[in-house]
Amino acid sequence: MCGIVGYIGKDNAKNIVINGLKRLEYRGYDSAGVAFIDSGKLKIYKKSGKIRDLEFELNRDLSLPHIAIGHTRWATHGEPNDVNAHPHVDCTGKIAVVHNGIIENFTELKKELESRGHIFKSKTDTEVIAHLVEEEIKNGKNLLSAVLSATSKLKGSYAAAVIYEGEPDKIVCVRKDSPLVIGVGEGENFLASDVPAFLSYTNRVIFLDDNECAVITADNVHIFDLNGNEITKETKEIPWSIAQAEKGGYKHFMIKEIYEQPRAVADTISGKLSLFEENNRELLTTFGKIQIVACGTSYHAGLVGKFFIESVAGIPVSVDYASEYRYRNPIIDEKTLIIAISQSGETADTLAAVRLAKKKGAKVVAICNVIGSTITREADYTIYTHAGPEISVASTKAFTTQLAALFLFAVEAARIRNKITKKKEERLLKALSEIPAKMKEFLDRESEEGQVRKIALEFYNSQDALYLGRFVNYPIALEGALKLKEISYIHAEGYPAGEMKHGPIALIDEKMPVVVVVPRDRVYEKMVSNIEEVKARKGKVIAITNRDCLEVKKLADFAIEIPETEELLYPFLTVVPLQLFAYHIADFLGYDVDQPRNLAKSVTVE
Ligand code: F6R
Asked: Which is catalytic among the residues 141, 153, 419, 601?
C-alpha cells in the first residue's frame, strides 16, 4: 500500500504532485519521491521519512516542469531508505517508474535482466519494471507499447505510472489489482491511486479497471486494453468532499478496512506456497515447541494460530499475552521457537518478550505488517502480512491477514516435517485460497441487505454483551467482545461456551445479548446445547452460523449466515460480522470510531 500521483499540464507539476502526495499521507508511508522532466531531462528526488523533507529539497530546484510523477512508499521489498524509495529508473536514467502493489515474479525477472547486463540500484520489486521498459524501448517500441510488453511479463499486482525523456508529453499508466484513478481537467490531467490526491483540482474521474492502460497527455486521456486496443470509458463526477474521499466514500477508516479484507488476505497469501527461503528453513525443523507472544487483537490471532499449528503440523504451541510472558519466567531454550505477532511491530510488551526470548537462546519469527519496524529488525525472520496501512485504531484487516500468515506457517511446518499428506495440503491451501472470495461474498451481501447493521440497531442501547464460541471460534468470541468494548464502550465478555455453566450463565437475562459463533463444525451440537441454555434464561441470541444450521436458526433471535469452509478456516469468516456489529453499534452511538478514547494505534509503552 502506498500512493501514486501524476500530473501533466500547464502548471508547476512538481508542486501539484507534492500536494497530491500530502493528500495521500493518511494511507501511511515511510518514504517519498518525485520524478519530472524539465528541459528534456529527467530528474529524480526521493527521500525516506516525511514528505516535507522531500519538499524542502525539491524547492531548492527551480525548474518549472509540466510533467511529474510521485510516490509515497510503504515498504514491501527492501527496507525504507532513500535508494529503495520510488521513483525507480532504468540503466539509461531516462525512464522513471512509480508503482503500488507487489511483483511476485520479480526475483526471476531481476535475475534474467541482470544476466542481460542490467544494473539494479535498489532492492525493490518495482525496479524490474523500469528495466523491462528500457529493453522494449531499445527494441524500437514507443512508450505505450513498451509498457504493455513489460507488463505482460509481470505476475502480481500493480498500479504503475511511467515517464520517459524520449516522449516527454505523456504519462503511461497501467493497473492490475491495485487502484488507479485518472482526474480529467482542462488542459491538464492527473492520475492517482486515490481521488483525494487531485480532488481540489477536478472532480471528474475515470476509474481504471484491471488490465487497463492509459496514455495521459495535457489535453487527452486514451485508455487501452493490454493488447493495445483503445477502449472508451465513462468519466464520472465525484460528489465527495476530500475528507470523504480519503475514506473511499466510507464514513470511517474502520469500515473501509473491514471491506478491504478480501484484498488484504489475498495479498498475504498470494504466491506464498513457501514462506521460508532455503537458508531459513532450519527455523522450521530444529525446534520442539512454539511459544506465541502478542497483545490485544494480535494475541487473539495467536490463539487461533495455536489451533492451526497444532492441528495441521502437530507441534505443541502455547500462547501468552506478551505483558505476562515477560514476568512469568517462561521455559525457553534453543529448541523453542517464538512467534511474535504484531501489526505495528512496535508494541513495547511484545518487543520486550522478543528480547527476553532471544537472550535465552530462542529463535524468533515475527508476523508483522509494518516493514522495517523494530520487532522485524530484532527477529530472526519476519513473515509480512500485506494488509497495507491500518489507520483505524481498532484492528480488523491486520487480524485476518495474521490468520492467513499463521495458517501458511502451519502448512509449511507440516510439509517440511512430513506431517501432512500431499492431498491434505492441497485441500487446505485450496480452501485458504477461496477465503477472500467468501469474505467478499459475505461483505457484498451485507452492502446490499445491511443485515448486521439492522441487528446492531436493535442492540446499541445494551449495557453488556456476552460472546460465546468453542474450538477455533473461541478466540473469535474474545475478538468480537474486544471489538465491541473498545469502540462502543459497552461492557462485553468473550467466553469458551463450555465455561458458561461455571459462572457467566448467572449473567443471562432477557436484557443480555449473547453472540454465539456457531458454524457447522465438530462442536456444533455442543454449541446448540449452549444456545438452548441461553434461551432457557431468556437471553437474546445473535448467531453467526451457516445456511444449513437449521437448529441454530430455529433457536436464535437473529441468525447471520456466513459461507461454508473447512472447519479450521471459519475464523476468517466468523470474525467479519462481529467486526461489523461492533462498528455499527459504535456508529449508532455517535462515537469517533477510528479514534476511540484512551487508545493509541501503536502501544510503545509498557
Ligand atoms: C485492538 C487493537 C489492539 C492491538 C494491540 C497490539 O483492536 O488494535 O488490541 O491489537 O495493541 O498491537 P500490535 O498488533 O501492533 O502489536
From this structure: 601
Give the number of the atom of ligand 1 that is nearest the alpha carbon of residue 375.
16
Q: How many CB atoms lie within 10 A of CB 149?
A: 18
41-48 and 67-73 beta bridge pairing: unpaired
How many C-beta neighbours within 10 Å does residue 159 have? 25
Model confidence pLDDT, tens digit, residues 79-100: 778 888 899 999 999 999 999 8
Alpha carbon distances (Å) from 231 to 161, 211, 221 = 19, 12, 11
Q: Of 198-207, 239-248, 321-330, where does mean pLDDT reach its minimum? A: 239-248
Grid cell, residue 187, equals 488542459
In the annotation, is 549 catalytic? no
Q: Take atom 11 of ligand 1 and give the residue whose Cα is closest.
A: 296
**Residue 70 grid cell:** 510521485
How far is 312 from 75, CA to CA, in rounded Å? 31
Query: 167-199 pLDDT, tens per residue?
Result: 999 999 999 878 799 999 999 999 998 888 998
Residues in the chain: 606
CB atoms < 10 A from the CB of 244, how many?
16
In the numeric block, the cell 467486526 is attached to: 579
Q: Hey, what's the cell of 432?
A: 485458504
Q: Three cell numbers at 604?
A: 510503545
Residue 503: φ, ψ to 5°? 160, -65
Rounded to whole angstroms, the Cα distance separating 74 from 178 reads: 14
CA dihedral angle for residue 259, residue 263, residue 266, residue 268, rounded to 10 degrees? -90
Is 2 one of the catalytic residues? yes
Residue 112, SS3 per DSSP: helix
* Span 510-565, pLDDT tens digits: 999 999 999 999 999 999 999 999 999 999 999 999 999 999 999 999 999 999 99
Asked if 364 contacts 378 with a C-beta cutoff of 8 angstroms, the reply is yes
Torsion angle of C-alpha atoms 31, 238, 437, 474, degrees rounded to 10: 70
The set of protein residues with a Cβ atom below 6 angstroms from ligand 1 is 295-298, 342-344, 347, 350, 394-395, 482, 486, 602-603
Nearest to 486 by CA among 277, 320, 297: 297
Query: Closest ligand 1 atom, CA of 347?
Result: 16
If we measure between CA atoms, which residue out of 50, 31, 80 comes closest to residue 345?
Answer: 80
User: Which ligand 1 atom is the nearest neighbour of the CA of 295?
Assistant: 6
The residues, any chain, with a CB within 8 Å of residue 470's CB and separated by 6 or more, are: 496, 497, 498, 523, 526, 527
Cβ proximity of 21 and 70 under 8 Å: yes
Cα 481 to middle of ligand 1, angstroms: 14
